[in-house]
Amino acid sequence: MSVRQVHPYRRPRAGDIGAEGWMVRLDGEGRGPLPPYVPGWDYQFDLRLEREVRIDVDAVRESVGLPADARLALAVVWSSSGSGLRVRAEHVPLPAHGALTVPIAFTVRGRDSGGVLTLDTQLVLAARVPDAAPLTARRAGSVLWCDEAQVRLQGDDSQFPMTVVDFEAQGYPADAPWYLSVGPDPAAAAMGAMVLLVNSRVPPVLEAMQRAGQPSASDRLIHAAVQADVVRLLIEHAVRNPELRDDSQYEPETLGHLLLGIVRTRFPDTSLDGLRRLHESEPSLFSARVQGAVGLFAKDS
């Protein structure tokens, strides 16, 4: 059954606005159409995104019923399922009259993205219209027109969501090399519920993560340490989350599905409730078992 979307106010007619397809430069290289998937993408790669949007302002005002003094703007918002960020990349005020082409160009840093990158281009009401006619938008921020595009930066074997921050400026321990942030809701999308924060003030770790595609021997040691610590923290997060049970069922790609999968893989002969009891009664032994399951210094690590 198809569902027809009904808007609470009038929208522009087809032809009042036209948008060219997104063009992309990957890490400053050749320009081309935005693909549905970027193979080989890495957190060290930035995306330069460009497009043009044609707007007949007079036609838009007529079709949506706005007065001549209503303020309009073109906005672009990008969001990443990998980092959980949602950022307004562009906000361009439009003239009161005329037809024009608006060039859009901005850069999404690789360290701020990951997973699926969503690009929303919107024509918005930039200020409230106090005496708007019936069925006419009146609230500032009302979206009159929108266009959405997506590109998958990572596949099923994607790297962990990561972003680089200044720990001292953000209130984290200034000398800590990384911090894993995990949300509390196991039903949330995994790539949006967790992110690995890397301290910009610890160059060896930052540079090792940026060279993930071509790591040196020392980089691989850092990668192994980070991976082991992330797995350890996720196991502990699963044990401490009272909503998770051995018989819990979560959709694929959710945080709960990921956490239970890690526990079952690392402890195939131990139930989650058994790990909880061990964590409560003998925390040192629990820690040792997690260390053994993670295998940081195993021969094949």
For the structure shown, list the relevant keywords.
8 helices, five-stranded antiparallel β-sheet, four-stranded antiparallel β-sheet, 301 residues, 2 domains, 27% strand, Immunoglobulin-like
Mind explaining what this structure looks like?
- This protein has two domains: 17-152, Immunoglobulin-like (Sandwich), CATH 2.60.40; 162-294, no CATH class.
- By secondary structure, the protein is α+β, with helices and mostly antiparallel strands.
- The mean pLDDT is 84.
- The relative contact order is 0.11.
- The N and C termini lie far apart (51 Å).
- The protein contains eight helices and twelve strands.
- A hairpin with a 5-residue loop joins β5 and β6 (86-93).
- The chain is elongated, with a radius of gyration of 24 Å.
- 27% of the residues lie in helices and 27% in strands.
- The strands form three sheets. Strands 1, 2, 3, 4 and 7 form a five-stranded antiparallel sheet that branches. Strands 6-5-8-9 form a four-stranded antiparallel sheet, with no helix packed on it.
Concise overview:
This protein is α+β, with helices and mostly antiparallel strands. The chain is 27% helix and 27% strand.
